[in-house]
Amino acid sequence: EKVRKAVEAHKDHPAVLCWALGNEMEGFGAGDNPAIWGHIDSLASMVKKMDPHHPVATVIAEIGGRKVEAIHKLCPNVDIVGINSYGGVLSLPERYRKAGGSKPYIVTEYGPNGTWETQKNSFGAVPEETSTQKAKRYGDAFLALQADEFCLGSYAFTWGHKQEGTATWFGMLLPGGRRLGVVDTLQELWTGKPPANRCPVIEPLKASATVTGQGQVITVLLDAKDPEGDPLKTEWILMDESQDYNTGGDFRESPNSFPGAILESSGTSAKIRMPSNGGTYRIYATVTDPHNGAATANLPLFVAGTRVEAPASKVSLPFTPVGKYYPTGWMGNTVAMELQEGETLHFQYKANDNWGGIVWQHPPNDWGDKPGGYDLSGAKRLVFRAKGEQGGEVATFSMGIIGKDKPHHDSAKAEKKVTLTPDWQTYALDLSGKDLSRIKSGFCITVAGQGRPLSIDIQDIRYE
Predict the structure, then answer these.
(1) CA gap 435, 437 in Å, rounded
(2) pLDDT at position 354, please?
(3) How far apart are CA 35 and CA 25, in angstroms?
(4) Are 218 and 261 in contact (CB under 8 A)?
(5) d(CA 96, CA 102)
(6) Nearest Cα residue to 98 out of 66, 56, 61, 143
(7) CA dihedral 348, 351, 352, 356 (to 10 degrees)
(8) How big is the CA angle at 447 (ends 327 and 408), to the nearest 5 degrees?
(9) Interatomic CA distance for residues 334 and 353, integer angstroms
(10) Alpha carbons within 13 A on the beta-carbon side of 324
(11) Alpha-carbon distances of 33 from 9, 41, 125, rounded to whole Å
């Protein structure tokens, strides 16, 4: 029904190129589940009847397993294969043919090697290419794809900036809108005309030491030039290393920075006093020219010694956990669950037996192995509204479920088991007298199988 409404609303818009049914929804393993591809093909058939003027695609994450074979055998109504490819994009034309691909394809995302495709260094951090190295990689990828007659085109990821793995891993622009070298490269490839003024070029950073003691002073060397000889400005920032190298495009908070660590800096070097806390950090250098161009490079650094956990971030009340905690802790029979996010959280459990649940976590995908969480001190209760689709649905709502067996646990726990009605009701978990100084799991719903599929709506979650 969602697809039907979307096609009906947009099929006559002049900007529509084609319809893409699903993005990276093929599942894990071989990616050849016939239930998934049979459904995609039925949707493609419906779309073609509604709109015979635009082709239909479906988008997969790379082409491993039997994904290409499954689409070709089970989706005759799909005209184009969309492929998101990063580290393997240069070999994609050859690998697609070897996998049996004969439909035309579009590379719907490409860019630098992903964090998941990059070998970690000796202390577990992922080295990142400079913006200059990335620009060459984007150019090589574009040319390799352009030369393949099966490839209809490609989309470079991403026009903007984002925190994912590091502050600069993905993104063709800086937060203030300055362009990086990849923009110049693609402008010339797309238009045939080079930019009037090119971005600076930058070499990988070099440090006097990458593994240091607490409080040790090191020197980091920078080599950057401007193609036109324009004067360059340089900014140095030392940041905590992200605790999250996981894939996915969800929002990630920026790690802490340490401006006081930069003792001296110039356009060629920086003298840095490393923090007195053990763990992994990353030094960033950003150079800018007078024409809105920039270049970036960074280097992971490790401080030996014990990591003393910083206090959790204090929040003001009332506090809404949704948006600050992430629904990444799926438990139990996860394949039977669905969550639709928005002003109303729509939770479905489609099995008749077993159990399932979702935890809103900070940081995401963490069960107590990483620091994080929020200081919710002063809250007296966790309030929310909920209803069941039919009434009679039994659910347990909780917070603070990470126990003291984990190094970074919740400081308190509360839960309430309720029987829902088909009308909105307000519920509250009593938090009086609890130590809320570090709450890693801010909200949780769990259900047991009740002999029928369950559908539950939740709104207005807040600590007050």
Answers:
(1) 6
(2) 95
(3) 12
(4) no
(5) 8
(6) 66
(7) -70
(8) 45
(9) 12
(10) 21
(11) 30, 13, 35
For residue 309, what pLDDT is reported? 73
Rounded Cα distance, 182 and 138, in Å: 7
Question: What's the CA gap between 166 and 125, in Å, rounded?
Answer: 10
What Rg, from alpha-carbon coordinates, does the chain have?
A: 25
Global pTM value: 0.73
Residue among 169, 179, 223, 168 at smallest CA distance from 201: 223
Q: Where are the alpha helices (DSSP H) in 65-154?
A: 67-74, 92-98, 131-146
Name residue 257's beta-bridge partners: 239
Sequence-ordered list of residues with C-beta below 8 angstroms from that of 368, at least 6 positions apart, any chain? 402, 403, 405, 406, 407, 408, 409, 410, 440
Question: What separation in angstroms does the CA of 239 have from each of 259, 287, 309, 417, 450?
Answer: 9, 17, 15, 42, 48
| Amino acid sitting at position 176 | G
Helix (H) or strand (E) holding 21: strand 19-23
Task: Measure the CA–CA gap between 120 and 102, rounded to whole angstroms.
Answer: 36
Residue 371 binned pLDDT confidence (cut-offs 50, 70, 90): confident
Give CA–CA dist 301/238, Å, rounded.
10
- Amino acid letter, 16: V
Largest CA distance in the chain: 73
The helix (run of H) or strand (run of E) holding residue 296 is: strand 294-303
Q: Which one, of 134, 128, 126, 359, lies nearest residue 243 by Cα? A: 126
What is the tens place of the pLDDT at every residue in 406-442? 889 999 999 999 999 999 999 999 999 999 999 999 9
Q: CA geometry: angle at 181 spanning 147 and 145, to 5°?
A: 10
- d(Cα 366, Cα 372) in Å, to the nearest integer? 9
Half-sphere exposure of 322 (CA within 13 A, CB side): 16
Residues 6+ apart with CB under 8 A from 241: 125, 255, 279, 280, 281, 282, 300
